[in-house]
Amino acid sequence: MKKFEEKTIRTEKIYDGKVVKLQVDEVTLPDGKTAKRELIKHPGAVAIIPITKDKKIIFVEQYRKPLEKSLIEIPAGKLEQGEKPEVTAVRELEEETGYTTNQLKFVTSFYTSPGFADELMHMYLTDQLQPLTKKVAGDEDEFVELIELTLEEAKQYVKEQRIHDAKTNYAILYLEMLEMM
User: Per its UniProt record, what Pfam families does this chain match (predicted)?
Assistant: First the structure.
């Protein structure tokens, strides 16, 4: 057994939903004791940092039921079965913003909540936006409003906790780092 590895003894599947699967694993710990782990299985996601010609970042505001409030975030969405992250990124950009792009720059991938979920998010940047001539239908249960902010305005929104999610904060830090170079 690896230094910190937890060996799965048994898995109980609790829920198989549209977005996530929930399971409880019984594991053997490195010291030989057993414990239970509540796990969320997720197909993965993408996030896009869209930059306009006038150097504004396009955000979407949408209601987040788990938080019971709206958040201002960069566009993002779930990977569909067998879909490449770059394809998901363009699809989500089109659905959520009404823009498309032929140029994506890979920024990074990261685990969103590794303490209980396996979701891996892939982040891309584009500054080559083209408005769509015909609106693309998004998810029927998703309602968003576009907000364009400069980097300085976005940083102020972070201070005010109007931008308050990890992927969007990561995106703003990344853009700030690019500015410093």
Answer: NUDIX
Q: What is the pLDDT of residues 77-104, one digit of tens each?
A: 999 999 999 999 999 999 999 999 999 9
Residue 52 CB: number of other CB atoms within 10 A? 12
pTM above 0.90, yes or no: yes
Q: Which amino acid is at 34?
A: T
Catalytic residue among 140, 142, 145, 160: 140
139 falls in which pLDDT band (50, 70, 90)? Answer: low
105 lies in the same domain as 152: yes
* Tally of domains in the chain: 2
Backbone angles phi, psi at 74, to 5 degrees: -75, 155
Residue 57 counted as domain residue? yes
Write out pLDDT tens, residues 118-129. 999 999 999 999
| 83 has catalytic annotation | no
